[in-house]
Amino acid sequence: MLPGKAHGFLSFLKKKTCLGVEAQFIDEVTTLGLARRPYRPDKPDMKALFKQLRDECIVGNCWQKICLGDAAGWESLYVTGKTLFDVSWQILLAGCPSSEYEACRKQAKKIWKEFRKYLFACRLHLLPSWAFGLMGNITKLGDKTILFRPVLAEALANDFQFRVRRSISHRRIMRTENGYLGLASALTQMGDRIALLKGSKTPVIIRPKGEGWGFVGDCYVHGIMNGEAFQPDQCREIWLA
User: Which residues share a beta bridge with 129?
Assistant: First the structure.
């Protein structure tokens, strides 16, 4: 590496099986939520929609517990000084531009209010799958899915919900040793390390592999996405396999 350069070095082994980079180790993954799978039924109907909703509630309940941790409630403060509520919905979006903050926050509050009802109903087992299947069959008799279509149409038309689904698909929420929260690949495991590669702003998940490190994927860690944690003098050369 040349002194004084902001970008990092890149090099390959002779067989090009490993990539050499400069990395700063930031944190370690200590808690992981369930992975969120996208809704892609072969034949959309009320029963399929309910199954997805129930799965979303299971994942959402898991993620909620991880976000709260030992905190007293959603108004408790995160490591950045913001409330856990404001941090949590930004994590679901994998970040929010300041120009869209107020509009997104308004949508988040509205959706969270409704989602809490589903969480409560699921915990009390008030949403049996057979009932939704029956509702779907009844609506098909008249060739009008009067209950299913409005729900699906509203979800698809809501830009906030679309962005959330896109951001969290095949990902899981994580908590780190230093108290950070974020989104990571579904392949992430507890004990994986979070690092910043010199020349890149996006944190990555890496895992020990032989004498080097295996690349798991990129991640979103709320509070360090703008280079706040990066310290060039703490970078060291590593090999990614």
Answer: none
Amino acid occupying residue 54: R
CB 221 within 8 A of CB 228: no
Q: Which of 69, 80, 21, 41 is nearest to 213 (CA)?
A: 21
Of 110 and 25, the structure prediction assigns the larger pLDDT to: 25
170-222 pLDDT, tens digit per residue, is 999 999 999 999 999 999 999 999 999 988 889 999 999 988 899 999 999 99
d(CA 41, CA 49): 8
Q: Are 27 and 219 in contact (CB under 8 A)?
A: no
CA distance 92 to 172: 10
Distance between CA atoms of residues 148 and 160, nearest Å: 20
